[in-house]
């Protein structure tokens, strides 16, 4: 991507200051400052950056951050790490950290765009950030909106509890908010790829991705309205939920011909919507307050950014509440996360250690026994690189619950799986197991 470029701004985003590939890219940028301006964006104090060894590399992320700290006073090296506090809901960085990432990047790039065009921008940086606070307050204080969101959570939660599906149907960038929210459910909650899916009016044309149409790669790569009309709508179940996401309240009538639960999220007044749904969330932006902060021209040009983040907050609430209802969360911890990357591998070990009170090494062994479905863990397995464990774990389901039950009960992997098969609500079986042990 950067081949032949003479001036590159590189922003590495890693909420916990831990992602190995971001660390490697930042180090490369620091070694080539004639071309690159390295920026790291995350939400931990720098001393809490991950210090674990990284495969095939001589550095840790903490060492990279320490080097950036040394260089930032004398070079164009930047650390953006406002500590916004812990993630209070399930520990998922898709929540506050995801929102803060969007706020910061949009503040940077809207200012850059306007400055490049006119040499000046009509607001102070702080004013643009304050705009998001105004939008947030407006959304959560809107009469009836949160009650409507709660109704959608209940519909969607009942759907997943009945082995149904949730379908986001959206247009443009608001539809992409739905795609992003759906994509976060498998790693966060161990959801199947069919539990929450997103569809866009123009499919991959809405993404404008370099590789173009990827629908030939399989069922879950098929994301256009036409795909949904052909493959989903004829087979929807009465307890499935279709959630329409639109700015103006208009919905493609072809997408409404389904006998299931329906919800609408829009920025149009309720009186202007023409489709029949079970529940509507009708939002509006605080136009006058935003104009007073950033000016009318900027509001007209960038109001979609505020619609997007409002939509993100609502969709995050829906899928979080839905998976809580399905029993994927225990004591505010996402206990059925997918062990699909380095961060989640270490988080899984931490969850096992927290509830079993085993040592770190014994907790790791429990996780590995679950991944490899064995009670006799060989030294060869223990010594494999973490990347091998992640590769083995990613396609599997219930890895962490199985490991956690084995740890609490000191039982075999097959016995813990038998308990999960008997009681599929993970929160319930963990709670019952811990209660039994404590008694």
UniProtKB/TrEMBL annotation:
One of its GO terms (molecular function) is fructose-6-phosphate binding. Gene3D superfamilies: 1.10.8.1080, 3.40.50.12620, Glucose-6-phosphate isomerase like protein, domain 1. It holds the Pfam family GKRP_SIS_N. GO terms for biological process: carbohydrate derivative metabolic process; glucose homeostasis; response to fructose. Residues 156-328 form the SIS domain. InterPro entries: GKRP_SIS_2, Glucokinase_regulatory_CS, MURQ/GCKR, SIS_dom, SIS_dom_sf. Keywords: Carbohydrate metabolism. GO terms for cellular component: cytosol; nucleoplasm. Signal peptide: none annotated. PANTHER family: GLUCOKINASE REGULATORY PROTEIN. This is SIS domain-containing protein. It comes from Magallana gigas (Pacific oyster).
